[in-house]
């Protein structure tokens, strides 16, 4: 049994000889304990490498089940993806009428917004933005951008480590600049744990992403500084 | 030179493509927690993350034949999970998806977290495991953390520690066994 378990461990690490895989699978076919061990290897690995996510899992267990998505990402109105969807599908004459906006203009706008091209564009933007924010949340190295920006004029210095972070002694954040603006024309932001994620469109069709414990006015100030 | 692949995933995938459910079972067990944790970052809901993770692996099973191996298997799985999470953003889309795909009716058994897995997700359990790993014999701890935290291959660990590769494999296995024993005897029964 020990030999089988050792092979199982090697299989988990991707280090088992190819010729031994079939035999191991056969050995495990009716052995729930072995499969359970394999599953726990994954959890042990996760616990070592993704502590923050585990913490979130712990917290989630204390919450009532099936809470709304609004709990998760606190955007300035709704999530970016949801707001794009709203732009596409919820904008209609009635909405505009309620906001006392000229109906003729809104007809043209609604027509443009509902065009296939507009939908495609917005769907792509939504996809990229959701992917982008997911990467910020899930990939610890994603925000370790090599492009460094001088922000001393707004009071932030960057540490010279492999894990670059801007700080003024109190507030800390990471920064990343994309050569696309995700179709945004205004800042979007989300709350993630005790940090905020800001995606701000800047000049030349780019967007800057800021991730840390900074406020909205600070994020705008930093983005403006980069724009200059 | 032994014929050791860099990653057994591709071999398991090929076997699963041919209908080997046990091979798929291993792949699912290997990545279930990672997918779950990633989705939880997105949903912050245990129940929804569990649902989405199950949906993810059901889709993986259904679409496995389309996986060409251009990317790592987990990357492909992760992409499927992300796409499902996007549907989750639009709650109506998510509900439709749920209606269209029934885990219960699928032809393969899909994982779900059991009590033991959930117990391990406690902060205190996590700290206890880490404390236990710190207390393991140095030779086991070194090999295990080099593998798990640094992502080094057995060969690399062997060269760094100047230890035969078979010993490295054995130490990593013994470290895992020790942790599992600790979990079973200390965390599960005493909690």
TrEMBL record, chain A:
It comes from the Bacteria. Residues 5-53 form the Anti sigma-E protein RseA N-terminal domain. InterPro entries: Anti-sigma_E_RseA_N (IPR005572), Anti-sigma_E_RseA_N_sf (IPR036147). Keywords: Membrane, Transmembrane, Transmembrane helix. The keyword Ribosomal protein does not apply. One of its GO terms (molecular function) is sigma factor antagonist activity. This is Anti sigma-E protein RseA. It comes from SAR86 cluster bacterium SAR86A. The lineage of its organism: Bacteria, Pseudomonadati, Pseudomonadota, Gammaproteobacteria, SAR86 cluster.
UniProtKB/TrEMBL annotation, chain B:
GO terms for biological process: DNA-templated transcription initiation. InterPro entries: RNA_pol_sigma-70-like, RNA_pol_sigma-70_dom, RNA_pol_sigma70_r2, RNA_pol_sigma70_r4_t2, RNA_pol_sigma_r2, RNA_pol_sigma_r3/r4-like, WH-like_DNA-bd_sf. Residues 27-91 form the RNA polymerase sigma-70 region domain. Pfam families: Sigma70_r2, Sigma70_r4_2. GO terms for molecular function: DNA binding; sigma factor activity. Keywords: Sigma factor, Transcription, Transcription regulation. Residues 132-177 form the RNA polymerase sigma factor 70 region 4 type domain. NCBIfam families: sigma70-ECF (TIGR02937). Belongs to the sigma-70 factor family. ECF subfamily. PANTHER family: ECF RNA POLYMERASE SIGMA-E FACTOR, RNA POLYMERASE ECF-TYPE SIGMA FACTO. This is RNA polymerase sigma-H factor. It comes from SAR86 cluster bacterium SAR86A. The gene is algU.
